[in-house]
Amino acid sequence: MQSRPRIPEATVARLAVYLRVLSGLVDGGRGTVSSGELASAAGVNPAGLRKDLSHLGPCGTRGVGYEVATLRDRIAAVLGMETAHACVLVGIGNLGAALAGYGGFGTRGFEFVGLFDASPARVGQLIGGRPVRPMADLEDVVTSTGATIGVIATPAEVAQRVCDRLAAAGVRSILNFAPVTLTAPAGVDVRQVDLSVELQVLAFLDKQRDAVPGTAPAGELAGGMA
Amino acid sequence: MQSRPRIPEATVARLAVYLRVLSGLVDGGRGTVSSGELASAAGVNPAGLRKDLSHLGPCGTRGVGYEVATLRDRIAAVLGMETAHACVLVGIGNLGAALAGYGGFGTRGFEFVGLFDASPARVGQLIGGRPVRPMADLEDVVTSTGATIGVIATPAEVAQRVCDRLAAAGVRSILNFAPVTLTAPAGVDVRQVDLSVELQVLAFLDKQRDAVPGTAPAGELAGGMA
DNA sequence: GCCTGTGAACAGTTTCACAGCG
DNA sequence: CGCTGTGAAACTGTTCACAGGC
Questions:
Q1: DSSP type of residue B150
Q2: Closest nt to A65 (CA→C1')?
Q3: Residue A22: which CATH number?
Q4: Could you list the residue range(s) of the whole structural domain that residue B148 is in?
Q5: Strand C footprint nucleotides (protein C-beta < 7 Å)
Q6: Model confidence pLDDT, tens digit, residues B6-50
Q7: pLDDT tens for residues B158-185?
Q8: Residues forming beta bridges with residue B88, ordered by sequence position
Q9: How many domains does chain A have?
Q10: Would you say B16 and B80 are in contact if contact means Cβ atoms under 8 Å apart?
Q11: CB contact (8 A) between residue A197 and residue B21
Q12: Residue B206: inside a domain, yes or no?
């Protein structure tokens, strides 16, 4: 299959994981991998991995496996990593600073072209080599850099207002870490991430496990990101 | 349906979101809500919300809606929030500090009974009112507090070793924020959260949207947590 | 009349088994 | 003979429509 008939979202999330694993293998000087090995390193089922990769068209050699460098580049291309994505990050508290300083973004095609915080104490600080700017500069920076992605790591109370400003400034995709449900105009895609929900799911599964002693703990990871 | 025939995991994740919204409504002095209103505040489909709640047994009154305080307590009980969960958090960088200082955990039945970091510079600091301890104390604290949940917010290189130590010390559920796939012995449940995957999915959807102009941006949030 | 609760259709995702090529 | 690629089956989760109480 080509990339036309649309790749399932669940597959896209896993492709991002494969990309990370493959990058590690390339750095380790590895030439080829089998689906079984790659699946094990990514924590998924081998057959499922092959089905995921089938959405990119044939990219392995039968009896051998996949060439790691080629496969990595192919996935990177499909995920749109060949062109860097300009992002702005609003709210430089601990979480915002963690996101800004996380090396994983830069190496995967994301660049934070603007860090913003409402607190004068934060403005001017350097985070990951970039200065924190005042909120007043938000619209100008979005316009001048053409940033299409906005990340919100503010307190819940101001997240909706920040979302409105990002959308008005032309940002089309928003990732929200504040624990509120945001509404955005049509044409703007909002994704919600609440760090406490995973913990609650974990606690629920733990409780359920105690209640039903015969139940095995399922297995490995199940969460969305990786 | 009672809670016996098992509640779907997707439903559990959404119940956590409803719980947050309901807590806000209770604080606002609200008496009852309809499924439509609650669904809108949680960013989900009203029919889906009713189906989710049906797993707890009938808990609304027809023609009226749900009593917010009662429903909140019911969900809290099902999610196991009536008894506090003791957690240990390993890796007090920016992300770890953000998690430790996030008020949302404490009010939802989670208590960090131990914060750990390998860096001597971090040890002794107070985060969210609790001191950062040296890694050497990990096993003792897990044993003495009976912590059943461990959160890993360390660099990727040491995450597996931390996982091993947590599992050996008796932790049964692990939430991993490090970008590596962890393996744990049977009986230990590991959930993986990678902050960069959501960003990559967002970028992919954005790219796909440009490629197929007729496609609407879906709608609201889709991600797991909230 | 309004809103809940739910069975039934639907869509998406995972698993399986195996055909096909190197 | 090993490993990829893929259709078919099984499963899970979501959406819809409406029956049923208040």
A1: E
A2: D3
A3: 1.10.10.10
A4: 85-196
A5: 1-7, 12-18, 20-22
A6: 899 999 999 999 999 999 999 999 999 999 999 999 999 999 999
A7: 999 999 999 999 999 999 999 999 999 9
A8: B114, B150
A9: 2
A10: no
A11: no
A12: no
